[in-house]
Design goal:
- Helices cover 49% and strands 14% of the residues.
- It folds into two domains: 3-190 and 230-254, Rossmann fold (3-Layer(aba) Sandwich); 192-228, no CATH class.
- β1 (15-19), α2 and β2 form a beta-alpha-beta unit.
- The chain has nine helices and seven strands.
Length: 261
Amino acid sequence: MSGSTLQIMSDVSRTCLITGAGRGIGRAIAVKLAAQGHRVALVARNWDELDETAKLCGGSALVVPADLTAPGAVDDVFAGVEAELGAVEILVANAGAGTSAPIARVTDADWQRMIDLNLTAPFRCIRRAVPEMVATGYGRIIVIASVASKRGEPYIAAYTAAKHGVLGLVRSTASELARSGVTVNAVCPAYVDTPMTDGTIATIMDRTGRTADEARRILADKQPIGRLITVDEVAEAVWFCVQNAGVTGQGINVDGGANQS
């Protein structure tokens, strides 16, 4: 695809649905897509955080508070977005959470929560978005996965299992839809400077007695570049997936060189 064609595509206003859009990575992605002239629907549990994201998007974003793990929630969200903005053309499945515990202490409830939010909710969003995308011959699906989709680390077995699963979902769906005009990719960040990482830092402090700066440095040093990834760097990778119709079925690392591929 030529550069001129990419520019023409980026000038078309599309309907975007971003989950987990209240803060962090999701907020940065929403702001990026809105700045490119797209219509954005923002989904998360917290109304106040969504409202703040909407303001950063220029105030015209559609705010849709929802718990995507609740029965019927995904269908309700899509129906609401379709009624206000039209069919979803760009889906960014970003909502997620982590947990940390030795494998012998992972409870059934912890396990199920990781699977429900990090794997089942993206699956339901993809399943709901695909028919209309295929019917129109255009769609972009981007799942925010993790470097944990590609490697194992101690104490995050439930999170890692869910993130491995969602990368498999992306790859299989991309293969199925390859001739349809719909691309499906995952963006796989390392530790990003977000509230979720702040929670990880608090856990390290609690379990090791280290200071906040010391705990943050431990996470920063996991990236060869020696710092946390920024939310804008993740948003730029998402924008690349939106623009480039020749990229599908990929897990794109945004990890400062931690996983070379």
